[in-house]
Give the backbone structure.
Amino acid sequence: MKIKYEFSNKLWQHSSSGGWCFVPLPERFAEEIRETMKWQEEGWGRLKVTAKIDNIEWKTAIWFDTKMNTYLLPIKAVIRTRGNLEIGKNIDVVILV
């Protein structure tokens, strides 16, 4: 059985050259996920999920970031293009863990 999390947060880009784009999960969701599913994490805090933004759904993973104390959902360029997503704008996200 998968657990559904719905949230809205800003899409941001890492400052490195060609940096990845991410949406951070709310910390309260990250706490719950870590408490119940940390045992399923793979290397570097990676946890497989299904993500959905509008009508775009894809299999991916969230990564736990110790500096931000939450999971980050990477948003690849193809998803940003298909969803017309802009850096710095709030987007509505659903993840199934």
Notes: The first strand starts at residue 4 and ends at 10.
